Amino acid sequence: MTAKIGVLTGGGDCSGLNAAIRAVVRSGIAKGYQVIGIQNGWQGLIRSDTIPLTDHSVSGIISRGGTILGTSRTDPVKNSADISEIKRVLEDLGISALVVIGGDGTLRAAHEVSLLGIPLVGIPKTIDNDVFGTDITIGFDTAVFIVTEAIDRLHTTAESHHRIMVLEVMGRRSGRIALAAGIAGGADEILVPEVQVSMDEICRSLNARYRAGKKFSIVVVAEGIRHEDIASTSVPEGDRDECGHEKFVGIGNYLGKELECRLGIETRVTVLGHVQRGGSPTAYDRVLATRLGIAAVDQVFAGNFGCMVGVQGNRIAAAPLESVVQQSKGIDPAEYARAKLVAGIHV
Ligand code: F6P
What we know:
The chain is an alpha/beta fold.
């Protein structure tokens, strides 16, 4: 009987998921497996929502955003009945191993599930690029590309109207998108959750630009920043997603109003939102997803479970999920300092 492996995508979607699914299916088939698609993340395992994936069913999806399997933020570890159901469904379907494509939440759940005796291998994806154990996650490059393009477009209109343009980008706890795109797009201020900057400092630095003859400014801010000077981004109790994550209420708009008021310079705000997660993946993300998909199947084939495949110094390597979920990957302070250095005006 042909051995079966299951593949699922969990958490927020991003560009490149389909390329990873395609690679898992094609390399799985090449290794003699039958591949089963599990729909809507862990939820599909709890509800036995699955589809067979064939060479034909993944044809033409490498360039498509989103995930053909659907996704959800369902966390199976919250409920022991869900774990029993997952074990039963896997047994019923004859699936002997799982490939779990997810960000930090999904991979944390994967670790717990694997400790409960379910053989699996993880693949890291998230536009935030904050998963430990890999230099880069699927979806990050595309998000940075989209944000960089937005900054380029904001530059020309900012210049014409002599305005401050605030661009709010995603990043709950991680400012990696803001930092990378801020560098690439030549932003004047980059505000990230990992580095505290006071409103006075931001105003001083923008003022210095104006004194130096610059007539516009671009401020990129990650949605998750919070510090005492940039007033409360707190959410009303209850306003949380399935995983208990706070839903943000708009630091960009707050910052825009505050800057306009303090500096007396006309300011406009753009909140890029889910545009960063949609559309066609970059060539880099397609190649990365393909490499990781193949590597995950290699690990399954080798019987090396409870691990995540990732990029370490441009080589694909596997790391134990245990070490992945125990650590976080913050911004490199040296890179932040480099971004400040080239922003131009120093105060
Ligand atoms: O975790 C990835 C991410 O894109 C975060 O940067 C963002 O805060 C969150 O997902 C938004 O998720 P949702 O799809 O629930 O709005």
